[in-house]
């Protein structure tokens, strides 16, 4: 079984309940937008390599989601649409969920990629490896 670590320290692939997924740990960046955007760019480059196709969960706990961060995240998901099979997002407030849904829809992601928001990362990971969307 071959595993590797992403630039953010996530194990790829991460095995969970008989399936595999990939985690983006974007939590605890607080208002450090520059560091978060650098992490997002590095993770995007990692996942965009050939033969990477997986469900992804993104953790935004304790991170301020500015308009720029939401725009970059949505654009990155759009660029990675051939590599992501499902997207579970955790750690967003009601307001941030609404704002991110609008951006994903505008980017054309929502129509092609199953996206769900969760309060609990375990629920997100379970959905990502489940057979039903």
Describe this structure in words.
This protein has 4 helices and 7 strands, in the order E-E-E-E-H-E-H-E-H-E-H. It has helices at residues 33-47, 67-79, 94-106, 121-129; strands at residues 4-5, 11-12, 14-16, 19-25, 54-59, 84-90, 115-118. Strand 4 (19-25), helix 1 and strand 5 form a beta-alpha-beta unit. The longest helix has 15 residues, at 33-47. The relative contact order is 0.17. The model has no long low-confidence stretch (mean pLDDT 94).
Summarize this structure as a short list of keywords or feature phrases.
7 strands, 23% strand, alpha/beta, 133 residues, five-stranded mixed β-sheet, 38% helix, globular, Transcription Regulator spoIIAA
Distance N terminus to C terminus? 27 Å
Instruction: Evaluate the radius of gyration.
Output: 14 Å
| H/E element sequence | EEEEHEHEHEH
Q: What's the shape?
A: globular
Structural class: alpha/beta
* Total E-strand runs: 7
Percent of residues in β-strands: 15-25%
Give a quick precis of the structure.
With 133 residues, this protein is an alpha/beta fold. It has four helices and seven strands; from the N terminus they run ββββαβαβαβα.
Topology overview:
Blueprint: E1 4-5, E2 11-12, E3 14-16, E4 19-25, H1 33-47, E5 54-59, H2 67-79, E6 84-90, H3 94-106, E7 115-118, H4 121-129
Parallel strand pairs: 4-5, 5-6, 6-7
Antiparallel strand pairs: 1-2, 3-4
Helix pairs in contact: 1-2, 2-3
């Amino acid at each position: 079984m071959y595993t590797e670590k992403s630039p953010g320290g996530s194990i790829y692939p991460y095995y969970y309940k008989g399936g595999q997924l990939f985690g983006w740990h974007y939590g605890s960046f607080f208002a450090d937008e520059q560091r978060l955007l650098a992490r997002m760019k590095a993770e995007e480059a990692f996942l965009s390599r050939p033969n990477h196709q997986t469900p992804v969960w993104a953790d935004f706990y304790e991170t301020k989601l500015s308009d720029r961060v939401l725009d970059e995240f949505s654009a990155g998901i759009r660029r990675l649409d051939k590599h992501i099979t499902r997207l579970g997002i955790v750690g967003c407030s009601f307001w941030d969920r609404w704002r991110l849904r609008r951006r994903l829809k505008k980017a054309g992601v929502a129509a092609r990629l199953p996206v769900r928001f969760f309060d609990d990362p375990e629920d997100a990971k379970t959905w990502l490896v489940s057979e039903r969307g």
